[in-house]
Structure formats: structure tokens, C-alpha cells
Design a protein that fits this description.
Number of strands: 17
Pfam family, one: Glyco_transf_4
CATH architecture of the largest domain: 3-Layer(aba) Sandwich
Number of helices: 14
InterPro entries: Glyco_trans_1 (IPR001296), Glyco_trans_4-like_N (IPR028098), Glycosyltransferase_grp1 (IPR050194)
Helix content: 25-40%
Distance between the termini: 34 Å
Number of domains: 2
CATH topology of the largest domain: Rossmann fold
GO molecular function: hexosyltransferase activity
CATH superfamily of the largest domain: Glycogen Phosphorylase B
Oligomer: single chain
Shape: globular
Structural class: alpha/beta
Largest sheet: 9 strands, mixed
Low-confidence stretches: 1-10, 12-16, 390-398
């Protein structure tokens, strides 16, 4: 069954909030920069700020410690541009040694599936966070023949989880149709201070914009430059008059895209983080995302927080984030020509663009990372409270 709404705040000790030990097993972590990594980093921040303890298991990070949190590296194999974590006997031992109250599994596949199963054997509740549309990616890589098998695998991976958190009602419904039980909806937060409309009027941003685009309007994309993002579909917008395009990010498709758009009014800025990333958003007039396999769309939220109208496909996460005609528009997935009229209208109507930009910011105003992750921590408390106390460590009030 799918449940919606916020988890209940529980008092496990009768005397206040509790200090929890959280084992995080993630299919992606630093140095990879993507939605899974970003979400895990924010969760770690919240765990620390609330006085909880964590450990990390991932296939990508090479260091033993991350900001005081112990890390264990899992074996991995390359697939396309990804490092796919592999099951390993040490995973169960590492989890057991940490003695967690709850196991958080980010975007579980092979590695995460083992972690969920291990948690069940150890009698520890698990929270599985569904973040990657693996089944959808198979179509992108011409592997549709494996889709049914992957759907069965996803169902089997999530079956032992105490609760599965999906980013949108649509993805929750997908999991429920696969037979996954105890599915709830938990979205993603956004840094409302870093990504802010006021940044667009800063002298630094204005100077950068003038240097890159002169007096032209600026349309852009920010994200990983991989095939599933369909950045090549910006072809459909290249004939818009007095328009410059900015593409921010890196990935396996960057060289192909740079060659494709050579001689066109396109600037590639590479991978950016922090203030530089926020300034890149602030240079834009309109944010466009063509990728049709997004389970959520974190960059869409960051654009909205910056006060930008967004044009994206009527597929996946954008359906949850964009209200057509209010804070952006939805084009037809895989039909980039349907995006062009929307982008044209936004570029040529200053009032429309300003109104939608204000509504875009308004649509995320309650989605700070603190507020978002408070809901996650409540999920932790709920599953821990419902778990059998046998074998669990004694918890201390904080």
C-alpha cells in the first residue's frame, strides 16, 4: 500500500529525542557528482546536526573517513559511465560491527539490495530510498529486453525493506504496482539561501553574463552530460533569435556535445559547485531540461529556487515539480520541437517570464533541506520505534 503525508514524530525513550546510529549504504558517493551523492551528503549533514551518528558504505569513495564519518569501500564494476557496487561478505560484517539502529539505503541496486537483506537478517529496520529509474535507463541504452527482469529485481530488492521512500507519487505508484509494500513519498530539499533570485542582480553575475552572452537572452541546462539527459535536443532551440545557450556540467557526452554545437551560440562551463554553480543558474533567463528519465529532477528545483521558469518533459519528476502555465511548461517527452514555443514565449514576454519566475520560487519556498530531512529523521524514528527491541543497543536521550 502507498501511504502519503509526513511520518509521525515519535519519542522512543519517553524523555525527548533519541540519538540514533545510522548506517548509510549508497550506490553512489564522492567523487561522483549526481543526485544520489548530493542527497546523501545532505542527509549526513542533518544526521550530524541532530546529534546522531553515521557510517557510510559506497563503491566510489577511496578515503577511509568523510568529515569524521567512517567509510568502507565496497567492490564495484564499471557499467557505461557508472561504477556499479557489488555485493561482498564484508558488508554485513561492517554493518553488524557498527550496531546501527537503522540502515539507510540510497538508490539500492546490487549493493543496496545486499544491505537491505543484511539489515533484515540482523533484525535492524531499513529505509530504502528509491532514486534511480533503472528500468527507464534501459530503454535509453537500447536494453528494453531486460526491463521486465529489472522490474522483478527492483521488487525483490525492496521487498525486505521496512519502508521504501519514493521521490514522487508517480514513482511510489510504480513501486506499488511491482508489489513493493510500505511505500511512502519523500521528496528532495533545496538550498534556498544558495539558490536565490537576489543573486541574479549581483554585479558578479551581471558581468559574467555580459561576457558570455552580451545583450542576448540566456537559456541553459545544468546537470550531468550523459545520454539520458538528452542535451543534444537543444538542436531544436538553436534558431531562436538573440539567444545564447549555457551548458553546465561534465560527463561522457561532453566531447560529443561540444563537437555538435561547435560554431553555435553555446558556452560550456564544465562542472561547477557551490557559489559558482549558483551564479551559473543566476545567469539564465530560462532553464530547459530535455531528459525524460528523471525520477525527481533536483536541478529543476535549484532553478526554481533561483527564480527561473522551467521547461521540461511531461514525464517522471517534472510532472511533480512543474505546474504548466504557472511556474513553467511541460513539453512532450522525446519531441524537442514541442519545447520551442514555450521557450520562445518566455524569452519574448518579460512579464510572463517574471511572473513564472516568482511562482517558481514560491513553489519551493517550503522545501529547505532542513525541513525535508526532518521528515526523513521522523521516518527513522518511526521504524526504530516499531522494531523489536531485542538485540538493539540501549539508546541515550539527547
Amino acid at each position: 500500500m502507498v501511504t502519503f503525508g509526513r511520518a509521525r514524530t515519535l519519542n522512543l525513550t519517553g524523555g525527548g529525542l533519541v540519538s540514533l546510529r545510522v548506517a548509510i549504504v549508497t550506490e553512489s558517493f564522492l567523487p561522483a557528482l549526481n543526485g544520489v551523492t548530493n542527497s546523501v551528503l545532505r542527509v549526513l549533514d542533518s544526521i550530524a546536526s541532530h546529534g546522531h551518528e553515521a557510517m557510510i558504505i559506497s563503491p566510489t569513495y577511496t578515503e577511509r573517513w568523510y568529515q569524521g564519518v567512517e567509510h568502507f569501500r565496497a567492490p564495484a564494476m564499471p557499467f557505461k559511465q557508472f561504477a556499479v557496487g557489488l555485493p561482498h561478505p564484508s558488508l554485513t560484517a561492517n554493518i553488524a560491527q557498527f550496531r546501527p539502529d537503522v540502515v539507510h539505503v540510497a538508490s539500492p541496486f546490487w549493493l543496496g539490495g545486499q544491505a537491505i537483506a543484511a539489515a533484515a537478517r540482523l533484525g535492524v529496520p531499513s529505509v530504502a530510498v528509491y532514486q534511480t529509474d533503472v528500468s527507464g535507463y534501459l530503454a535509453r541504452y537500447n536494453m528494453q529486453f531486460a526491463r521486465a527482469a529489472v522490474d522483478r529485481m527492483i521488487a525483490a530488492i525492496h521487498a525486505p525493506a521496512t519502508v521504501t521512500l519514493a521521490p514522487t507519487p508517480a514513482s511510489a505508484s510504480y513501486l506499488t504496482k511491482l508489489g513493493v509494500k510500505n511505500v511512502d513519498v519523500w521528496g528532495r530539499g533545496v538550498d534556498l539561501e544558495l539558490f536565490h533570485p537576489d543573486r541574479r542582480s549581483s554585479p558578479e553575475v551581471r558581468a559574467s553574463r555580459q561576457l558570455i552572452a552580451g545583450d542576448k537572452r540566456v537559456v541553459g541546462f545544468i546537470g550531468r552530460l550523459a545520454a539520458e539527459k538528452q542535451v543534444n535536443q537543444f538542436d531544436a532551440l538553436m534558431d531562436l533569435p538573440d539567444t545564447h545557450f549555457v551548458i553546465v556540467g561534465d560527463g561522457p557526452e561532453r566531447a560529443n556535445l561540444e563537437a555538435r554545437f561547435a560554431g553555435k551560440p553555446v558556452t560550456f562551463l564544465g562542472s561547477l559547485r557551490g557559489e559558482d554553480l549558483a551564479n551559473a543558474y543566476a545567469m539564465l533567463d530560462v532553464f530547459v531540461h530535455f531528459g525524460a528519465e528523471e525520477t525527481f529532477g533536483q536541478t529543476i528545483q535549484e532553478a526554481q529556487a533561483t527564480g527561473l521558469p522551467v521547461v521540461a518533459p511531461a514525464s517522471g519528476g517534472p510532472l511533480f515539480l512543474i505546474q504548466p502555465g504557472v511556474n513553467g511548461y511541460l513539453g512532450e517527452a522525446h519531441r524537442p520541437q514541442t519545447f520551442r514555443p514555450f521557450v520562445h514565449d518566455l524569452l519574448t514576454d518579460d512579464g510572463l517570464r517574471a511572473r513564472m519566475g516568482e511562482d517558481a520560487r514560491r513553489s519551493v519556498r517550503l522545501k529547505s533541506w532542513d525541513a525535508n530531512n526532518a521528515i526523513l529523521l521522523q521516518h527513522y524514528e518511526r521504524v526504530v520505534a516499531a522494531a523489536k527491541p531485542v538485540g538493539m543497543r540501549e539508546r541515550q536521550s539527547v
